Amino acid sequence: MNTTTRTAVPVGFLLQLADTSLILGQRLSEWCGHGPILEEDIALTNTALDYIGQSTNLYKQAALLDGRGQDEDDMAFHRDAWDFRNCLIAELPNGDYGFTITRQFLYSAWYYLYLQQLRQSPDEFLSGFAEKSIKEVRYHLQHSSDWVKRLGDGTPESHERMAHALAEIWPFTGEWFTPAETELEAIRLGSAPDPVPLRKEWRNLVESVLSEATLTIPEDGFMHLGGKEGRHTEYLGYMLADMQFLQRAYPGAKW
Hints:
Elements: H1 11-29, H2 38-66, H3 72-77, H4 97-118, H5 124-152, H6 156-169, H7 181-189, H8 198-212, H9 234-243, H10 245-249
């Protein structure tokens, strides 16, 4: 690809996108072999693979721009927790299936709208990445929306579990609309969209699905922030210990 057609893209911004995809993909992969039914086991595993594939593309580009001779494996397996820039919501434990599918729905709704804007980036890599990824995320949104409606408007127990999950996850959604410094730099350079104006459209989309699910959108209040600046929950360290063990134990090992 001709680099002269690209705009300036901060490496930190690419890592922010890549880290969120990788960590959420890792979380969803934990459902492999544990899904409530076979079809959902496969669906969640495929979604995890989509995110990990997206993170691979982003890490490759970040390593190229960083210019220190690293590759995507170095980016994923040789950074410590405080170097990761993923949104906090991605590292939360899966909980029950209702919790996982609620998180997936809220995230997919935001990510789909964000990728729609990112497709318009003048940077050739980012626009191409968004064009490819949005096809996958469109399915993630449809799949999770269907299950939110099914469980929210299901039995009294499924409705209660979904309402509880929604209340637990909601305080982590504000981070999507609070740009970190590297994100603000990408916005100033014109390579990335401003996520703040997406809040209203995202809320309307979420509210339309929740109303069909007989669920009530929570009140906005305190929002957990800091993941995009490297301040994480205790869960991320445990995830990375498992995820990075082989590369740490056998540096440079290749499959």
